[in-house]
Design a protein that fits this description.
The chain is mostly beta strands and about 260 residues long. Helix content is about 5%, strand content about 35%.
């Protein structure tokens, strides 16, 4: 086949990631690497990558902070790919309804930082639901001499609304959970919807996680005080499935769990 000629675009730094947003492959976001004093760049294209616009300054100018913005992650809504959310490495994120061409800045609840996020998990069927595992903002380097920094599990069910609301699932547990270690949506362990077994077919709200109950319990990489649990109501209540279960992976309809011993 005959391919169109490529037109080069000069960026200040190497490209680290590309996000093809729509099914026609016309709207694309590119991220460039942070080099020296220059933060990572944010570029958009509306013609399949033939021409690019540098939107980095738009992110910088939209916040009152003097710190130069660095992009940590980009999300696009599957049902409406024009809706885009951009997480920075600091306490700001941006929402867009036009493929990232214009953005509105929002500050994270409790001022948690994008660079402190350990993992994100989109819901496989609810495209506005997102779980974020992030280090608690009040944890400092000196705290790590005594224990691992605690991580909270945060939930939004309206990521692409323009002003998403966030729920801290650690707080929802009302003192029964001190911190989260690992997590996943329960439906990822039941991709076909037919999951006869110990836990049965999970609800849309089902979350599997490894947690510890008391501050200071999680003080080593593999810890007998960390347990594998599940919840169907955002951890208002939860069930412990395996004691000492620390890390897990869902592959197909199987759950592989690593246990401390």
């Amino acid at each position: 086949p005959q391919y169109p000629a490529l037109v080069p675009t000069i960026t200040k730094a190497p490209v680290t990631d590309l996000h093809w947003l729509d099914r026609n492959d016309q709207n694309v976001i590119a991220l460039t690497k942070k080099v020296g004093l220059d933060a990572g760049g944010f570029w958009v294209s509306s013609d399949g990558g033939k021409r690019w616009l540098d939107k980095t300054s738009q992110l910088n100018d939209s916040t009152p902070d003097t710190e130069v913005v660095e992009v940590a992650a980009v999300f696009s809504q599957a049902s409406n790919p024009a809706n885009v959310v951009v997480f920075g490495a600091g306490t700001w994120f941006w929402t867009s309804s036009d493929y990232g061409n214009t953005v509105a800045a929002k500050q994270t609840v409790t001022k948690w930082r994008g660079m402190s996020i350990k993992a994100y998990k989109n819901h496989p069927r609810q495209d506005s639901w997102l779980l974020v595992l992030v280090k608690r903002p009040d944890c400092r380097a000196t705290d790590r001499a005594m224990m691992e920094c605690p991580y909270d599990l945060l939930l939004t069910k309206d990521l692409f609304s323009g002003d998403p609301m966030w729920q801290n699932l650690t707080a929802a547990a009302q003192g029964k959970i001190a911190g989260f270690v690992d997590f996943d949506w329960g439906v990822n362990g039941c991709p076909t919807g037919d999951c006869a077994g110990m836990m049965g077919p999970p609800k849309e709200e089902s979350i599997m996680a490894t947690i510890y109950a008391k501050p200071g319990d999680y003080d080593q990489p593999w810890d007998p005080d960390v347990h594998f649990v599940g919840s169907d109501n955002w951890f208002t209540t939860f069930t412990t499935h395996v004691w000492c279960g620390n890390k897990f992976e869902m592959i197909g309809s199987s759950i592989y769990l690593a246990v401390s011993n």
